[in-house]
Amino acid sequence: MSAHQHRDFSRVQNLTKREIEVARLAAAGLSNKQIAETLVISLNTVDSHMNNIFSKLGISSRGELKTLEQFADNGKNPHPSPPPPETARAGEGEEAEQR
Asked: Which pTM value belongs to this model?
């Protein structure tokens, strides 16, 4: 591992558990609003976490975050990103099964 890669990994380790959750969801493509709904926290809290994440990692975009998150997980993410929101409305699955 190069010194640059080691430095990037150590910055990711500086994130809190919640910041890591938020970062993974953001890297997976969820909007701040979707992250707030997923984690049942306010949008302002997500905004605050995102500012902290960017500051701690020394980045300025979600694209950079995605690159760092993929590197940090190195394919061994014990908490994979959630699947995209389902497009089916409530009850449609039950009706389809009954047909």
From this structure: 0.63
Longest dimension (CA), the chain: 60
Task: Return the pLDDT at 70.
Answer: 57
Write the CB contacts of 82 (distance below 8 Å, at least 6 apart in sequence). Answer: 25, 28, 38
91 φ/ψ sector (left φ>0, alpha ψ -120 to 50, else beta): left
Residue 96, φ and ψ in degrees, nearest 5: -65, -35
Which CATH architecture best describes the domain 3-76? Orthogonal Bundle (1.10)
Q: What is the pLDDT of residues 83-92, one digit of tens each?
A: 445 444 444 4
Q: Are 37 and 51 in contact (CB under 8 A)?
A: no
CA distances from 79 to 13, 17, 19, 75, 83 (A): 15, 11, 13, 11, 12
Domain range list for the chain:
3-76
